[in-house]
Write the structure tokens for this entry.
Amino acid sequence: MGIFMRFVRSIIAGIIFLFGAVSLAAAGIRIDSPKIRVSANPGSYASGEIKVDNTGQQEISIKVYLEDWVYAQADGSKDFMPKGTTSLSCSNWITFYPADFKLAAGKSETVHYTVNIPPDAKGGHFSVMFFETEGGEMEQKQEDGSTAFVKVLNRIGALFYAEAEGTVEKKAEIRSLDIRQQLNDFIVSAAFVNIGNTDITASGTFDVLDNSGFVYVRGSFGDTFTLPGDKAELTSTASSVNLKQGVYDILITLDFQNGGSLVQEASFTIDAQGNASGITLKS
């Protein structure tokens, strides 16, 4: 591989991503809106602004551009793709200015954006606005012993969630359930599916009860992130004394961020060896 191609690959490999925070200390960039959720009627628009701060000691050049994103895993990690290439992209709905600017040390700039909702849009659509600046160059040893220059590009993103008002369906279901007792652990795994047309971030609890309503085991599920059509496994482990032989109910209650919920009940049997069987989801 030639030096030029190694240099190009190094540029790509050297890009730094940061989400869930509002600043990128290495480059001195800070934004005030890392997550933007807009809702407007089909055929109308929503506008807003993002404040960009240079918290560093030097002037920086910032390039602003859009890409698509999807969840890579149910833990909220993301994959990024060119704008307009995913089925639920709203990147081509967004206009903004300025797209390129210089920012002196300690100064701020406001990026104005407009999200135009198409007349035929339904549900939720997604994009990310990146703010990118160069972080300098460094040398990197290659496999063949040669040295290539690495250009480090730092970027921070504002995630866009755009919904066509009046068309949103926030729905999910649990399609299967697994229950195990292992030593003193009670383990619940549920197959969660987003069957709606917008994103769902779900978390919640489960309770195991007998037919008199006495609660034997309680546990919780952490945040699970999905887009429409995504499947995720909800898993929770609760410490408990092993359940005795008998028939029990499990009640799973999930709350959705920004509204909505899911309640699923199931019955199961614990045999003489402490194994769960006969798990039946109730409608």
Observations:
- Helices lie at 3-13.
- The chain has two domains: 3-164, 172-282.
